[in-house]
Fold this sequence. Notes:
The chain is of the alpha/beta class. 34% of the residues lie in helices and 15% in strands. The chain contains 7 helices and 6 strands; from the N terminus they run E-E-H-H-H-E-H-E-H-E-H-E-H. It has a 6-stranded mixed beta sheet. Strand 4, helix 5 and strand 5 form a beta-alpha-beta unit. Helix 4 crosses helix 5. The two termini are 14 Å apart.
Amino acid sequence: MKDVKLLNTKGEELKNVKLNQDIFDIECNDKVLYDAIILTRASLRQGTHKTKNRSEVRGGGRKPWRQKGTGHARQGSIRAVQWVGGGVYGGPVPRDYSKKQNRKERRLALRTALTHAANDKLMLVDKIEFNTPKTKEMKEMLETLKIADKKVLIIVSELTENVILASRNLGNVLLIDASEINVFDLVNADVVLMENAAKEKIEEVLV
């Protein structure tokens, strides 16, 4: 099993903790991980884009001039696609961008992302808690751990009001509960700061 140092919020080493090798030390499947990232990004798209075709554009109900004898090309409507202000041919229409991935693949992708995190960017702390809901306390903790200039994903076992309020004004910090862990946030972070209790919850679910 892989070992990782357990720290407190002052950066002091408490002990070594073993990570479950079935979750944090598997043979990575980057293809499944890539598919899971694409699925996540696709699901964020609203798909509400829309242009109007010639039947939906206002106006143009009559023929602009007679068919013959004017010297102009024949036209049936000023809202045809070749006219300024006319309809759009082949434009986007509302659609659902969401993709599907079976349950085993989703779990494998998550374990792969956790393995990558454990290899180079996982920091384990015993407990993250603050006495006041001040951003200053969160910044001081990150500076003590020397990750204040990194994009940090903080995973806690339970969301508390003080921690939520202390982190929400920091653009480089994302705070989530252990039950909300996902591939995209793990891959997108420079550092994954995880509570020991959150690690245990994740192991309990994914093992």
